[in-house]
Design brief:
With 331 residues, the protein is an alpha+beta fold. The protein contains seven helices and 15 strands. The N and C termini lie close together (11 Å). Pfam families: zf-MYND. InterPro entries: Znf_MYND (IPR002893). It comes from Psilocybe cubensis (Psychedelic mushroom).
């Protein structure tokens, strides 16, 4: 039985894709420059109350919309270095509408904002991370997915992964995040056709079997894996195509998408390389520093699962990860 966390792996040379995804997403989102130290001022699905919004996309009819306004500290006024998390996203004196948000709702908003244009960032980040290893193309990666028939586990070389780029037509939702005082507005789903990129893996080297979509929560809760509780999608390809893509957009060209082994660096690759280095350091130190099996956060006070192979920030994160972990839980 494969342990749920490579913290306790018996083969230190194998990268566990699920664990690496946790670490990559945590380190990326918690230091995302566009939203660094930003506090959530307003959330709406209709008219904004605290800003005058000029984005014409917001007037799109018959599309579920999520609008957010963030306040960033002025440049030079912020010396805090702690990571940005859903739990510290609210200001000191939030409005009543914000205090009514539960932890899962805050978590969704956090990821919706930070995953704007996230697909190419995450694919590039994974590329930078793999490049940190000697002979990166030969590094073995363990892939674990769950479907109605139970768990599937196989190992592939990092060089065998594919980047799959596709078009999503008529997105099913629209997310807008306005960041002040930068006066930057980030819109996901505002165009009739949007580009999307994921990582694909194959056991036999020919037929795609698994998809890793690290930015799926840009589409809101419909992008949650792990039975609607996870923070990314690591799914069998048929589940991804049949269940998730129709939730993201009316049409897609997944079957005719572009396949490649590498992509050009993202505009913010200098930051992404630093993120990749932190993930590599955490992976190399996994026997001494554990991470949450739901969100990837480090901590010395994490809850240890009775099976001894997984750790969690709290009971809520443990419950959220259970639909995946239960297939690898041993006592």
């Amino acid at each position: 039985m494969v342990s749920d966390s490579s913290n306790e792996t018996s083969n230190s040379d194998i990268l566990d894709l699920h664990d690496i995804a946790l670490l990559l997403n945590y380190e990326r989102a918690s230091t995302e420059p566009r939203f660094r130290h930003a506090k959530l001022r307003e959330v709406t699905n209709s008219d904004f109350q605290t800003v005058r919004l000029l984005a014409p996309e917001w007037a799109a009819p018959n599309v579920p919309k999520t609008g957010m306004v963030f306040d960033k500290p002025r440049r030079g006024s912020q010396t805090e270095t702690r990571p940005d998390l859903p739990s510290n996203m609210l200001p000191d004196s939030p409005s009543p509408s914000l205090t009514s948000l539960n932890p899962k709702q805050l978590e969704t908003l956090y990821w919706q904002a930070r995953n704007h244009d996230g697909c190419y960032r995450t694919v590039t980040l994974f590329q930078h991370f793999i490049d940190l290893f000697p002979n990166p193309n030969t590094i073995p990666i363990r892939v674990r997915t769950i479907d109605n028939h139970g768990p599937k586990v196989y190992t592939v070389s990092a060089g065998a992964r594919l980047i799959l780029e596709m078009k999503l037509k008529e997105p099913s939702s629209l997310t807008l995040a306005c960041v002040l005082p930068d006066n930057q507005t980030y819109i996901s789903g505002g165009a009739r056709v949007i580009d999307h990129a994921v990582l694909a893996f194959s056991e036999d080297g020919q037929n795609i079997e698994s998809i890793l979509d690290l930015s799926s929560l840009q589409f809101g809760d419909v992008g949650r894996g792990c039975k609607g509780r996870g923070l990314f999608l690591l799914e069998p390809v048929h589940e991804y195509v049949d269940r998730y893509l129709p939730r993201f957009a009316t049409q897609n060209n997944f079957e005719d998408g572009k396949h490649s082994s590498r992509i050009n660096d993202a505009p913010d690759s200098a930051w992404l390389r630093q993120v990749a280095k932190r993930v590599k350091e955490r992976w190399d130190n996994r026997k001494n520093e554990h991470w949450c099996g739901h969100c990837g956060a480090p901590g010395k006070t994490l809850r240890k699962c009775p099976c001894g192979s997984a750790y969690y920030c709290d009971v809520d994160h443990q419950k959220a990860a259970w639909p995946f972990h239960k297939h690898f839980h041993t006592t």
